[in-house]
Amino acid sequence: MLINDALAGKHALVCGASQGIGQACAIELAKAGARVTVLARNRETLNDTVQALSAFGSGHRSVVCDLADTRQLSETMATIGPDVDILVCNSGGPAPGPLTEAGAAALETAFQQHVVSNLLLVQAFTPHMKKQKYGRVINIISTSVKVPLPNLGVSNVVRGATASAAKTFANELGPFGITVNNILPGFTKTQRLEQIIGGRQNKTGADRADVEKSLLSDVPAGRFAEAQETAYACVFLASPFAAYINGINLPVDGGRTGCL
Ligand SMILES: NC(=O)c1ccc[n+]([C@@H]2O[C@H](COP(=O)([O-])OP(=O)(O)OC[C@H]3O[C@@H](n4cnc5c(N)ncnc54)[C@H](OP(=O)(O)O)[C@@H]3O)[C@@H](O)[C@H]2O)c1
User: Fold this and answer.
1) pLDDT tens-digit profile of 14-31?
2) Which of 63, 147, 155, 192 to mutate to test the pocket of ligand 1 (most atoms within 8 A of CB)?
């Protein structure tokens, strides 16, 4: 079997797919044959994404939803229907800043958007996956589940919770042919990276070139990633080729994470 056809007949729901890593995952999943539903808050950029997907098969669609809003998410899941085979849980990262300065509201919103939404999405679609004896849940989170990142306090906390939930789901769902894995992107050329660079500039007063140099000093590959490079890992984990890979954290970080 070629990876090109590996996802023919599968329906993928990709959250946070109007730009960046989520959008790249949607495109690569469609290229591998999946029918893709993309979810995010901005209707216009979602429409552009569906337009881009139409070059790779038919039946792709978009749904507008704020993952931080539980009621909206429940309504949205009802419109999608139960037949999702591949679920990519992804959205925007919490605002940068030290944890010691984080407001309770920021932590609550981040938990809602990342941890509670993840629970509801998994619960909604695993009955279908169990029937099919095939299911893939892929969380796009962060290398901070291995080593907490400076100035990303709230993010570090919610990523740990998401990773722990994923390992728990992996144990509970593994017997049904469903795998649950986390992809941990490194510094990737998207708007999130712009936010991270801006956050460091604000905190240190350094200029952009110096911030980039300091970020890259820890990356053996010596460059930032393209979003597509993370998407390739997503397609592999979504495919039948990855059936025996369950409950892992997969860094796609150019070798940056300093632990095994
Ligand atoms: N890029 C990096 O260097 C990097 C490194 C490590 C980890 N990560 C993490 O990987 C994930 C994806 O990163 P990215 O760089 O692709 O981010 P991005 O460019 O900021 O894209 C985030 C996507 O999520 C959607 N989104 C944001 N908030 C949402 C919400 N409340 N409900 C539904 N959709 C929402 C955004 O669309 P709308 O605004 O239209 O909703 C957009 O499509 C993030 O969690 C990020 O923190 C990124």
Assistant:
1) 999 999 999 999 999 999
2) 192
